[in-house]
Amino acid sequence: MFSQPSQKYRPFPPVALSNRQWPSRVLTKAPIWSSVDLRDGNQALAVPMNVSQKLEMFDALVKCGFKEIEVGFPSASNTEFAFNRCLIDDQRIPDDVTIQVLVQAREDLIERTVESLIGAKSVIIHLYNSTSPAQRKYVFGLEKSDILNMAVRGAQWIKDRLHKLQGTKVTLQYSPESFSATEVEFAKEISEAVMDVWQPTPEHKMILNLPDTVEVAMPNVYADQIEWMCTNIKNRDSLIISLHTHNDRGTGTAATELGLLAGADRVEGTLFGNGERTGNLDIVQVAMNLYMHGISPNLDFSNLNGLREVYERCTGMTVPARQPYSGELVFTAFSGSHQDAIKKGLTAWEKQGGPWDVPYLTIDPKDIGREYSEVIRVNSQSGKGGVAYLLESEFGIELPKDLQREFGPLANDAVDQLGREVTAAELKAMFWKEYMERQQPYALKHFHADGTGGVFRCRASVFINGVETSLTGEGNGPVAAFVQALQENGTPSFEITSYKEHSLGAGAEASAISYIQIKLANGKTPWGVGVDTNIELASIKAVLSAVNRAVERTLGVIGAR
Prior knowledge:
By secondary structure, this protein is an alpha/beta fold. Helices cover 39% and strands 19% of the residues. The protein folds into three domains: 28-315, Alpha-Beta Barrel (TIM Barrel); 336-436, no CATH class; 442-555, Double Stranded RNA Binding Domain (2-Layer Sandwich). The strands form three sheets. The protein has an eight-stranded parallel barrel, surrounded by eight helices. Strands 9-10-11 form a three-stranded antiparallel β-sheet, with helices on one face. Strands 12-13-14 form a three-stranded antiparallel β-sheet. β7, α9 and β8 (266-269) form a beta-alpha-beta unit.
């Protein structure tokens, strides 16, 4: 790094805005939301979503209440085009949902894009071209007039093809891409040139999207840019001013909220902020920020955990543990003083009701399907770390969430009996005793499996109530074969509902730990855990651990050892 960074970098110039109004305004309603997960979010993935994954994400977005969804860049690839056609031809788009597509100001791409929309009920065609000085100079090698003509030609090419979409409600959208780095006077000039082609009216507005494509200044500067445009552009009542912020400076949420104060009507973003570089705006954050002030966001995040699981499954991305509202640990306090304040605040609120006013918790976690502490603490009175936190931080044992909920109360009971705080080593010993040291009625002596053509056969030797028994079975994997072998020899009927494994330590001799949850005929779902240097054997041991615990559960003594 430079000791004098001014030798290489320069500050972004402020906007000349007299009598600015946005600092004294207050947000009172939600904007129009547009999800760009399936386009901007998708193009940022190392492995873009396939059609089935995009369909699952689309359905999840609809369920959340999004009425505008940018579904892709249909001229970019056959997969993108096919996804559009799948949505339309299979009638998967609800009547109150508008799909949005993105296209550059190129005639061949516009032609392909319009073809992808034929038969849709309601669409937004989103035209863009880059306008910043750096883009003009280095990417295009063109002057302002050439860039303006590019936008005008693109707008006309779209207008010339609208007759192909008869019966479709069409809204037109224009973005001077890299708006945040563009001179506001030129952004106004080029936007008005596009308006002259499309001729929006108060009854049939066009969307003018003013993206913070790359954050180059503090969020108040972006707000000034938005207010300047809202104040100076012609025919403001014929426009829907839209925001699309990125997070290069870590202030995408702030820029969006200030941009709304500055007069914008609409917000584009993604779930959990997935996007190029440091990401797009996280719509969940802005929506929930409104919610915590008593303003309905008109989006439903009441099952945020479930939504996060869909997102992670479809995108291959993970939501950081400290991501506002949606992260794994945002409602978990490790500080004793925080725990004490939260506990007292919750107790008081549950008794008195009224407006939410609990220390350290900006919203009630239950409103989005969460709990104050999704990871049970070792000792709720001591205020120390939780069961899962200690096991992972000290020993690398990463408990699945449902297993955390199962073992947590068992550990707490043991701690209460001791009447004191336990160490991490004592906690591990409790965990080992509960799951790994169960050898009755089933204990493994030997296991071997091999398979061809997707069918595995296993041979095992198991002690059942002390009697060695030979078992054989087959299935679509070693574990499935072993389950079949057990059930043919009188174990309680069960199925495996969850499986996770990871290594404990590093190196060739590192052990593997396997977590398996089974579901019994009576609906109970005990967990089992197995450890071995061989991951296959760890999984087999985990199955027996779960079965042994299921048998004890049936006898009513599980957890009472």
